[in-house]
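User: For a benchmark we're assembling, each entry needs the component sequences followed by a predicted structure for the full assembly. Here are entry 17's components. Please fill in the structure.
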Amino acid sequence: MYVAVKGGERAIENAHSWLAEERRGDTAIPELTVEQIREQMKLAVNRVMAEGSLYDPDLAALAIKQARGDLIEAVFLIRAYRTTLPRFGATRAIDTGDMACIRRISATFKDAPGGQVLGPTFDYTHRLLDFKLAADGDVPEAPRATPRQEPTPHITGFLNREGLIQTEDASDETPPDLTREPMELPGSRALRLQALTRGDEGFVLGMAYSTQRGYARNHAFVGELRIGTVAVEMDIPELGFAIEIGEIEVTECETVNQFTGSKSEPAQFTRGYGLVFGQTERKAISMALVDRALRWRELGEDDMGAPAQDEEFVLYHSDNIQATGFLEHIKLPHYVDFQSELELVRRLRRDAESAQQEAAE
Amino acid sequence: MTEMTARKDWMSLLANAPPKALAALWDTRETPDFTWLRAPEIGAAMVRGRMGGTGAPFNMGEMTVTRCSLQLDGGAVGHAYVQGRDKAHAERAALVDALMQTDAADRVRAEVLDPLRADMTERAEARAARAAATKVEFFTLVRGED
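Assistant: Structure for entry 17:
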């Protein structure tokens, strides 16, 4: 049975007009500019770039404004825009060893070469509301010191020298791309890392936390966390050589995980890896923990049946746009579906009532 | 520096340059006559990272890039691939690339590229200097027992 579903056009149009008015809010208060969002809501911009899987701070700021601050809606807008862009190619892998670090800390080595550089962090703040921010925007200039000229070495490099940590074998194999081919499981680590780096921060954090609470515990230390800018190089066919096509800010986390050895591997430290667009350290640490948990098979560990070890569970539920698309569709008209459910329930009740009556007679 | 590395160097500088900074240095000049070989086009490049920083590559996500190609009336061909979605920026970058292959090279270098590089180095150093000021200087307290 079909039910005509027409007549909503005017209501929709009016709803969208009102949405625009609500987005603007009280007109007595100055309107936010995209530049203000980009500069002053930078961590929201970073999250939208990471989960939207497109590095462009101006676009992410625009999306946040359009979405009225709903970050998942903003990610949705970025993902939709992304599909309209022709792809010029893939870049060379970025060299995080050559990063201009604004933050670099290690929880495993106090005296790491290059030092512990705190950067613009919330750590050690008292998490007390600062009412000065409500009053004026003047900030004193941050102190400066002589900058480091040479690149900051990776911490895992030191453990590698002693052979105490599992090595990462370099290759130039073309990695799978889940935006181009449907995801096939079991996937490779490259596929998992791509899904995790664009995954929902809340979901990846929850999964990582579950491993810390004992669901496939993997004893992670933050070997190194670094934030900074890296150059992005791409081979340009018409030139015949590679040039830098830009510079991006990324957060990288390498965990060092205790590992007592398995049937196939000696006792040594193993690694989890997180690499995310922007200054996004909660996400990068979470990604590294979940990456490590998902590596149980290749390291010959036991399947504890934990959610964070279940590749299918993690990869199919980490994408907030897929999730919200399916979740939110149930609020759209389902009048016909529901009509048939209603008739079914009525019939079942009728049948049950008549059966009872028969039994009573 | 060979011709190729020199060109790679200036093209990289132009790609990374803030559009406003290049515009401020360029727009005082007269734009030379040229024809488009490829009009400015906005697209994306898939950025790759490496597992563990040094291992096999994986796809991280895309970044926006604008590219164009043009030919000066004198015959020099300029290309640009610049970060972001600013078509005018791509055009200026391609013009600089083309001019750098002509007699105007020395002037363009002195008036556009050198000041641009100085400006960008200054910004990068200002950030690095602030980071350096947040470096922890550990000191160990001598304990009482011998």
